[in-house]
Structure prediction request, 299 residues.
Amino acid sequence: KATIVGSINLDTNLRVHRMVKPGETIHGKEHYTAAGGKGANQAVATARAGSKTRFIGAVGNDGPGEQMLDLLKEEKIDVSGIEIIQNEPTGQAFIPIDDNGENSIMFYAGANYAFGTEEVAKNSSLIETNDFVIAQLETPIEATIKAFEIARSKNVKTILNPAPGESDLPEKLLKLTDMIIPNETEAETITGIEVNDETSAKKAAAKLHELGVEAVIITFGAKGAFYDFNGYSELVPAFKVKAVDTTAAGDTFIGYMIATLEKDFSNLREAILHGNKASSATVQRFGAQPSIPYKNEII
Ligand code: ADP
Prediction:
């Protein structure tokens, strides 16, 4: 049902009492690796939601690359569109987390930036025969534009999660986007309109509609998710839960929403409710992919 064009990272997490200062060496308390990258997280979420999921992206010819491919295969994701790049390593992020739960992230995009229009074109059949194509901004924009052009030519719906936020998104990309899903901060970065409530979200949505985007969804963390589509708009409230770690909340929301969504977006509100429900489970658990729930856990 969905083809994801996006990033794959190996996350190396190190829990520390406090952040290290320049020139200093400190002991870590705990060390663990996990699969990450917004593309891979969203693919895992759509797959766990019970949707057939395909991936177009790249890893390096190295141990982390093999590990990431195995993890995605375990989730029954079609990895035939993942290229193995020879001269770049698999994307990696290094994440110290201190006792206050605060983190910093240093990453090297590696293979994620070494695939472009050619690799997407080679895998066009993975897009053409599907309902949706989903992309984020952790891989080259030209590759996303190519994927969206292929999708449009075959009446496949295009969905953009503009994360991490970027202020000068090419107009060409927005014109090719059917649905955009930013969070509050990203909505503000793209439109230049401060987004903090329903009224301001509506203004930002109007601007995005003007640029050619049919459906606008803005996620509002613990407040829920706002949509503006086909003349209707509403802030659909989040589920009240005690959050311990909001990592991958947005990725879970997107995966579960897309897994429920009809191709013509006619059941958008129901799909958002499903996204809210699933991501409320994610925020009650630690980590990125380990915290994304399986369909049978969402009742
Ligand atoms: P991102 O992780 O991309 O910044 P948000 O923080 O907006 O995305 O969260 C995405 C969705 O996850 C929200 O729309 C909401 O449904 C759910 N969510 C996030 N934080 C909470 C929370 N504290 N309690 C319940 N649901 C939450």
